[in-house]
Amino acid sequence: MFHKILVAVDNSPVSTKVFDEAVNLAKETNANLMLVHVLSPFDESYLTSSGAYSSSYYPTFNANNIEYYMGVWEELKEEGLKYLNMLGDEANKLGVPTEITQNLGDPGRTICELASNWNADLIIIGRRGRSGLNEFFLGSVSNYVLHHAPCSVLTVQGKNIVKAEEVEKLETTSF
């Protein structure tokens, strides 16, 4: 069964579902968790390097912009660690032995490398539901992990799933 479960979280709404699934599975199998958050300069939600440029026609780096950019990265690192510590404390209170780590790099590769180095039996990761051109241009961490992981992978769907009651309500509503 599963003894070591690597859980990729990123402070998004789907991460709550991922964390809940991981804790439930770890409790059932007496597994240990490792929560990982990967800071990536290529993620669309993070500050881009263009924020470090001046507003001149030919952009150049200046000391104030670089200091600002580095300050924002420090804030992102602190927020990530705060989030990991919160989740780790919650899992530990529920009786699940949990470690945390935050890494910088390409999320898919970092998750797979960490799973290999930690000898994980399972990776649990969220899926935002990108498809088509959106997935092609923005990439998909979950897709990369599915194809390169050294162990089994459980993906948790992030799209809003319509509840059964809502389906019944839609079916009975006439327009």
Q: Which properties best describe this structure?
A:
175 residues, 48% helix, alpha/beta, five-stranded parallel sheet, globular, single chain, 5 strands
> pLDDT below 50 for ≥5 consecutive residues: which ranges?
49-53, 133-138
Sheet bearing the most strands, described?
A: 5 strands, parallel
Q: Could you report the average pLDDT, rounded to the nearest whole number?
A: 81
Going by helix content, strand content and strand pairing, the class is alpha/beta
Walk me through this protein's architecture.
- There is one protein chain.
- This protein is α/β, with parallel strands linked by helices.
- The chain is 48% helix and 18% strand.
- The chain has six helices and five strands.
- The protein has helices spanning 13-29, 63-93, 107-118, 132-138, 141-148, 164-172, and strands spanning 4-8, 32-39, 98-104, 122-127, 152-157.
- Helix 3 (107-118) runs parallel beside helix 5.
SSE topology sketch:
Elements: E1 4-8, H1 13-29, E2 32-39, H2 63-93, E3 98-104, H3 107-118, E4 122-127, H4 132-138, H5 141-148, E5 152-157, H6 164-172
Summarize, please:
The chain is 48% helix and 18% strand.
